Amino acid sequence: MKNSKRIAILQPLIPHYRMEFFTRLNNNIPTDVFVYDKDNKEYFNLSSYKVKTLPCIKIKGVLLYLPFVFMHKQYTSIVCMLHFAHITTWILLLLNMIFHRKQIILWGHGISVKRYLAEEKKCNWLLRFMISMSDGVWLYTDKEVDLWKKEFPHKSIISLNNTISGIDKIVKYVSPLSRTDLQRKYGIKEEFIFLFCARFNSPYRRIDLLLNAINKLDNKKNAFIIIGDGNNKPDFSNYKNVYDIGETYDRNIKNDLFSLANVYFQPGWVGLSIVEAMAYGLPIFTFKRSENIKQCVEYSYIKNGYNGLIFNDVDDFIYKVNNISISEINKMGVNAKNYVRNNLSMQNMVESALSIL
Questions:
Q1: Are 12 and 28 spatial neighbours (Cβ–Cβ below 8 Å)?
Q2: pLDDT at 43 over 50
Q3: Where are the alpha helices (DSSP H) in the chain?
Q4: Which end of the chain is more exposed for a tag (fewer CB within 10 A), N or C?
Q5: Could you tell me the CATH number of the domain that includes residue 145?
Q6: At what angle do helices 87-99 and 125-133 cross, to 10 degrees?
Q7: pTM as predicted
Q8: Number of separate domains in the chain
Q9: What is the pLDDT of residues 225-260, one digit of tens each?
Q10: 10 Å Cβ neighbour count for 215?
């Protein structure tokens, strides 16, 4: 029997890590993705997923887009962004409340990354109003769902358990080279290796803490592999124990480097990069969320002492790094990989999305 459902999804753009999600979703229900920021390539390696461009106007963070395509009768469900500055989405929600011709799902962060400490205690009132008008919500993590289910216990609100394209292959990957061979290949002599893999595009990464850690740890024992580029990237050339790879999306190179490292270390603004690291079996080291250290919603994947360590400050980081055993590191790495395998598969993300369509 032919599937009578068809979905229209609004996104700013489609980064490479989201391509598999949309492909699998489309394999279950015909899905059209509309983007309004397709030409913005500053921070993302964009995917080749076929999209449709939607005319829009953006003024100081406020978005107006043409809504007419979403009113077409072929679409049984519309997935808009959970963003209170999207004026057209408010209009669609209001019209749908009056005529109720479509299912409207909102997709986004249930807690603002920048206002997390306040909003995890008290929901944003604009988002509350927006969600009340919708038919359901796709959030990224269980913690966000727990918060909003208290507000709307009977509404269809689910966690996608946000993950990345290719995650299932990464979990299964085993390097054909030994760690010693990989060290020789990349010229790394230090015995303990930290890996950082993120874009240097935001001050919230807290690169000052990264540099502080590099300066304070023994540079004869500890190495730092840096993957990433961006306007805020410091000059690492003066550090003999820092191996600056630059920006790369080459899976073969990343297979080597993630297999070589002992730990994934990112001081702040941790997001989907930790999912990739955990899939390779790396424990996550980062700093405690605070007013000065912002963390993305994926921070909730880190279970302190189980699949990573969360530090109070640099001194706490230095002390624990100098006193932790390799066996403890390896155990947390196994737990990290198992966490991804059990909770963050792409199949799980797609099935969660489909569950309320």
A1: no
A2: no
A3: 19-28, 87-99, 116-119, 125-133, 142-151, 167-172, 179-186, 207-216, 251-260, 273-279, 314-323, 326-343, 346-354
A4: N
A5: 3.40.50.2000
A6: 40
A7: 0.91
A8: 2
A9: 999 999 999 999 999 999 999 999 999 999 999 999
A10: 10
